[in-house]
Amino acid sequence: MRPPTRTARVVLVTGDGAVVGALPPLPVATPWWQDIAPVVSAVQERWSVEPTILRLLAASLPAPPGGEVTYLAQVDRPPMAAEPWDGELDEHPLRLAYARPGGPTADLAWAAARLAERGMAMTAPSIQVRTWNLSSLWRLRCKDGALWLKVVPPFFAHESALLAHLAGGRVPALLAHDGARSLMAEVEGEDLYEAKPVQHAAMIDVLVDLQDAQAHRVDELLALGLPDWRADTLAEALAAVVERVAPQLDAADRASLASLLTGLPARLAGLAECGLPETLVHSDFHPGNFRGANSDLTLLDWGDSGVGHPLLDQPAFLERLPENRAAPLRDHWADRWRRRRPGCDPARAARLIAPIAAARKAIIYQGFLDRIEPSEHPYHRADPADWLARSATLGRLEA
């Protein structure tokens, strides 16, 4: 099913935050709200002005993709086409630095300084690729190739420290980092949303090898600031998110979740018996977060990462595939762990963890909603209830 088209309306401010007007709506090449490069390109082509998109102001649809989306953007000079705008800009304590006037400029200046320390300099204007409540992403072009500047919110700030910890593995090469900012070398190849079946198996191998290698370094991972999703902590968080979100669900789903919570101690004990270690969890493990070619794969986007059961990463990866392709990959996943941990029972663990993994995604998305400003809520508003409903369905299928 083809996603609906997106139309962008851009409200303009100067570096000091003064509103100078708004541009008429214009069509954008892609429907995804956080996909900013096409918005910038469309404005440049139409009005010969280069905006820096700061944040989402409003959207005509309750959730992405598509519809008319209104963004706030900073410009050095307003174009003649700017029209009066009668809206108001508010202030919010959860607003991210890169969503404020001057924020992206400061991030780019930090990157330029880090490049200068290495005797490097940008050879072309930076390209704004993405901005939303989970990241600001820029492509920087230098003499020897492209680099990426990524800035994340405070709750993802452990990503750069984790990349430094995993240096030399199948992760992006980190050139510099400072809290929420990371400067990374470009990964050759292509994004692998449309990966081949053989690549899916290789992706699983990358993850399992990383997880097995990090299983004895859990204390180090937690010291880097990764969230703790081990059994006891996860049980408390699951109970809390069910209590908050269950009123949005129907009676059957609420009953299924109540049963899941009642049986959770026994389920977690069963997981422990399966013999897989608590370790690094990517938490957004899917083919689109890989880049590369053939079997040369790099696993991207570690902001969601935490510490917990390794098969928390399995359901979201496999549910994107038809069952005739998911089943052999499930077997491959189990075999990979058996080789790494002889005597373990990953097949039983996968059955036990499926509803837990779905419910944990509700924890993640509710955490986003609690820590981002309200104008960004449409990105995630429906997700906690959707994931708890999936968990409830999985629980009923077991019965």
Write the layout of secondary structure elements.
Layout lengths: L5 E8 L5 E4 L3 E3 L8 H11 L4 E8 L7 E8 L28 H15 L9 E6 L2 E8 L2 E7 L6 H8 L8 E5 L2 E5 L4 E2 L5 H18 L3 H6 L7 H15 L5 H12 L1 H10 L5 E3 L8 E4 L2 E4 L6 E3 L5 H5 L4 H18 L5 H26 L11 H16 L1
Parallel strand pairs: 1-5
Antiparallel strand pairs: 1-2, 1-3, 4-5, 6-7, 7-8, 8-10, 9-10, 11-13, 12-15, 13-14
Helix pairs in contact: 4-10, 6-7, 6-11, 7-12, 8-11, 11-12
Word description of this protein:
The structure is a single chain. With 399 residues, the protein is an alpha+beta fold. The chain has three domains: 6-89, no CATH class; 98-185, Phosphorylase Kinase, domain 1, CATH 3.30.200; 191-398, Aminoglycoside 3'-phosphotransferase, Chain: A, domain 2. The protein is built from twelve helices and 15 strands. The chain has helices spanning 37-47, 103-117, 158-165, 197-214, 218-223, 231-245, 251-262, 264-273, 314-318, 323-340, 346-371, 383-398; strands at residues 6-13, 19-22, 26-28, 52-59, 67-74, 127-132, 135-142, 145-151, 174-178, 181-185, 190-191, 279-281, 290-293, 296-299, 306-308. The strands form four sheets. Strands 1, 2, 3, 4 and 5 form a five-stranded mixed beta sheet that branches. It has a five-stranded antiparallel beta sheet with strand order 6-7-8-10-9, sandwiched between helices. A hairpin with a 2-residue loop joins strand 13 (290-293) and strand 14. The chain is globular.
